[in-house]
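Re: your question from the hallway

Yes, I did run it. Sequences:
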Amino acid sequence: MTDLHTHLRERLLAATTQLGLARDAAEPLVRLDPPKNREHGDVALGAFQLAKLAGKAPPSFASELAAKITPDDVIESATAAGPFVNFKFRRAALARAVLTAIAADAAPYGRSPKNGQVVCIDYSSPNIAKPFHIGHMRSTVIGNALCRIHRHLGTTVHGINHLGDWGMPFAKMMTAYMRWGNEQELHRSPMRYMFDLYKRYGVEVKNNPALDDEAALHFKALESGKDNQERRMWQLLRDESLKAFQGPYSRLGVTFDHVTGESFFEDKMEAAMQRVATAGVLENSDGAQVVWLKELGIKEPCLLRKSDGTTLYHTRDLAAAFWREQQYHPNRILYVVGAEQKLHFDQLKGVLTKMKEEVAAAVEHVPFGLVLSKTEDGKWEKFASRSGNAVFLDEILDEAVAKVRSIIREKNPDLPNADEVAEQIGTSAIVFNDLKNSRIKDVKFDWEQMLNFDGETGPYVQFACARLSSIQRKVGVPVPKPEAVDFALLADAERVLLVMMEFGTAVQRAAEQSEPSIVTGHTIALAGEIHSYLRDHYVVGAEPAVRDARLLLVDCARRLLTTGLWLLGIPAPERM
Ligand code: ARG
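Structure:
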């Protein structure tokens, strides 16, 4: 919240108290959002819930409230419009509050102090021994952004990579390797080799279904806990996979606080199963153990143990939920996993709910859509590489970087650190494109669109940052202290300032709704507004007082764009 918002909130709470509402009850209902239409005001309050609390109709409550907010040295006006109240701030107060806070790196522009909340974010979580595919890239970049957004707000974050390093998919891989693989080949190009073996398994199992029985036996041997061939193989394939994943992770600037994959729960599943049994919700079904969830509107039971005694993906997620609860005491556990796993997470939450476990309320699936690519005849379909095989993320990143490198060669051939910049812009273009629209929508993977320097793209926002840096270099005088600036000189920068002011609300809403696209949208809006402001407001060559005021504005815009991009996991180059 900015100082402006804090001031307005205080005034509103004083007013709601006068109107007979208890402060405690009113406080959470005072939510200030950008108005639908800027003409109406700078911030808006929807009075629905407050009116309900007061037992009045929203429009009449809104007018009573508006009448109580008389102008002061920060608030210029308050007007009711139907069930909403719109507020306008005084221009000089707006400029002073926003720019002073950004320059001081004060919250919400800088990181908030600890707020006592804890969030676990389960993201990326690829299956080992398989290529890191494009769906995992979505989970990786959305989860990474959510970690940064929550941390910015002062929440304690546990970023968790719940690697798929256990269970049948992995057992199939191992079966293939034991039948047809050899270690020398493996070390040459581990991920590709493993993937080829996995594909071969897929082909051969069609004619030889007994392969699946073999895989089940290998999994059982692995789960026996003995130090055997399976366990050594598991270790080798896991190590190689982690090494390979580190490539895209470091290129994307992604880190984890905990890499606790499915295998980590090997020795924690029995206790979890006990807990389910004790809760009295576990049932037998042909020798398997399940929890029925019909009363929660979920038709399919949650299978927790197969009839051969082995455990499943669900069993490990259940053990993981208990572990996280006990270790981290989270208010929320976000599972950033594709929408196709909706049933899985409904069931997980369902089992915990039926068990009356407190942690049930914390479990939140954060689903997202597919990545689509364009076919030859211009249709959009699920992403696949040209050869029709799975896609290695590294190759996609390489392609993006190569394309940007050639754009730079054409547009700015003298750029000194061109390779480094191309890497930053190329990878960011993909990340930005992924985080641009609400996550549940499918992402269209269109090179031309995402690399367009004039579109709503990563390169566009990065370019705005670089442009602001370049103006600062050209001005050649240091950025003035806010105390030294005459804010009245920035009266015509109100559009830039209003967007800046909305940063805190944007970050807050992004965290609440697990929607990094709200931050992405903010960076696009700010880049757009500062570009248009600079179209007819010179910094270099303006007379000193004006130059200084504008220079502060430019510096603050650059800082805020850099922070916004950082929250998305995207670097802001100084030159490009
Ligand atoms: N490894 C899974 C997959 O590739 C995703 C795991 C998501 N996290 C979880 N706790 N289930 O589909």
